[in-house]
Design a protein that fits this description.
Blueprint (H helix, E strand, L loop, with lengths): L6 H27 L5 H9 L17 H14 L1 H20 L2 H12 L5 E4 L15 E5 L2 E12 L6 E7 L10 E7 L4 E5 L10 E12 L3 E2 L5 H4 L8 H23 L1 E2 L2 E2 L4 H29 L5 H26 L10 H11 L6 H14 L12
Parallel strand pairs: 1-4
Antiparallel strand pairs: 2-3, 3-7, 4-5, 5-8, 6-7, 9-10
Helix pairs in contact: 1-3, 3-4, 3-7, 3-8, 4-5, 4-7, 7-8, 7-9, 7-10, 8-9, 9-10, 9-11
Bound molecules: flavin-adenine dinucleotide (FAD).
Flavin-adenine dinucleotide binds next to strand 3 and helix 11.
Length: 386
């Protein structure tokens, strides 16, 4: 695995691991139980410009997706929602960096890289969940302005956000995946409709927000008219979702190995029992598969190759490893694992989000199957996936 990491990547991993251990892990359970936004942790990430990790220099750190996967795993092993808040912000900023004008980049990237300006993603809607073609929010052109009407659902970071990268229909549904344009809308131009009480990811609420005749200048349009949704495929920050899964799968394994080594029943540690040792071995295999798939997909993206198939494999392997490892962790902790005295019940609640968000796993299975049927085995030396 280390073969994919540069010397700098290894340094980033060590720094992020120490940061997560010292600054996030001690408060992670409390943040969850009090549903408190991890402002201090994110500001500290901003000071390190991890909130601009993949943004181009000089504002961001100019790192790649392998580095993003490494950073995200470390943060998520301590607190998945911290990694979630950072990545929803960074993903929106990355799209601005990729498709924005020079003037937009100069204006926004310095603050975004440091988390002094906070971004959120306004893509999903009531009828645009796993299938975003159901989007109904519209942007009508009025001379050099646009008028936006509609709503966005599940906007993570909304309360802290300064900007919401907002997708709106500017063409017909028949144009899909064209006909959608991205805009940088001030967060306070929306009206808050509701905030959901969620099973996990509790420190980072997701909101439904409404746009009612909101006007933005054409200088807030990000990328060409009608190309907003297609333009999303130009960035691979979605690797953060499997990387968050790797973090949880790892934390669940570490806590369970420690607990079953200490907890004695029948005169011996639980970990002395072969049946239980094999369960730990199964958890370790899931973790290794998940990390390998995630780093491999990130590496393909860094090399500018077609990473779609690898990304789907990573999403499935890592998010399902997170749920399965967290579930086993609760089981192997016994009754105490079912309480808030331990973190494993949090891992399970947080892990479940990952098979839904970033597109439900069913959709990734469909996409993977489609590619496999089109080209079951790729030539070994064509520089793409297996
Ligand atoms: C806590 C949270 C935070 C989020 N943050 C953001 C955010 O910041 N910005 C944003 O834009 N969105 C965000 N989302 C939205 C997220 O991306 C969507 O929830 C996700 O895309 C699924 O859409 P849906 O919830 O409408 O599920 P639906 O589309 O209603 O699907 C429900 C279920 O049906 C099944 N299913 C769906 N499609 C298929 C298929 N093709 N074949 C078989 N089964 C299928 C799956 O099991 C799926 O889980 C967030 C969601 C949550 C819960």
């Amino acid at each position: 695995m280390d073969a994919l990491l540069t010397e700098e990547g290894r340094r980033l991993r060590a720094e992020a691991r120490a940061f997560a251990r010292e600054r996030i892990r001690p408060v992670a359970d409390e943040l969850d139980q009090t549903a408190t936004y991890p402002q201090d942790a994110l500001e500290a990430c901003g000071e390190r410009r991890w909130t601009g990790l993949t943004l181009p220099e000089p504002h961001g750190l100019g790192k790649g997706y392998v580095d993003l996967a490494v950073l995200t795993e470390e943060l998520a092993a301590a607190s998945m929602p911290v990694a979630s808040a950072l990545n929803l912000h960074l993903g929106a900023a990355q799209l601005l960096a990729t498709h924005g004008t020079d003037a937009q980049r100069e204006r926004w990237l310095p603050g975004l890289a440091r988390f002094e300006t906070v971004a959120a993603l306004g893509l999903s809607e009531d009828e645009a969940g796993s299938d975003k073609s159901g989007m109904t929010t519209t942007a009508e052109r009025d001379a050099d302005r646009w008028v936006l009407d509609g709503h966005k659902r599940w906007v993570t970071n909304y309360h802290q956000a300064d900007l919401v990268l907002t997708y709106a229909r500017t063409g017909d549904r028949a144009d899909w995946p064209g006909g959608v344009t991205a805009f940088l809308v001030d967060a306070d131009a929306f009206t808050l409709d509701r905030e959901w009480d969620t099973l996990g990811a509790r420190p980072v609420p997701a909101c439904r927000v409404v746009l009612d005749g909101v006007q933005v200048g054409d200088d807030r349009r990000v990328g060409p008219i009608g190309e907003g949704y297609r333009g999303r495929s130009a960035v691979a920050n979605g690797i953060n979702v499997p990387a968050r899964g790797v973090g949880i799968a790892r934390a669940a394994l570490a806590d369970t190995a420690a607990h079953t080594s200490e907890r004695e029943q029948g005169g011996a540690p639980l970990a002395d029992r072969q049946g239980l040792r094999w369960e730990l071995a199964a958890m370790a295999r899931r973790l290794d598969r998940a990390r390998l798939a995630t780093l491999s997909a990130a590496d393909q993206a860094d090399r500018g190759r077609d990473a779609a198939r690898a990304m789907a494999v990573a999403k499935l392997e890592a998010t399902e490893a997170a749920v399965d490892n967290a579930n086993d962790a609760v089981q192997l902790h016994g009754g105490i694992g079912y309480t808030r005295e331990r973190s494993v019940e949090r891992y399970l609640r947080d892990a479940k989000l990952l098979t839904i968000a970033g597109g439900p796993n069913a959709g990734h299975r469909d996409a993977l199957a489609e590619q496999v049927l089109a080209e079951p085995v790729r030539p070994v030396d064509d520089g793409r996936n297996p």
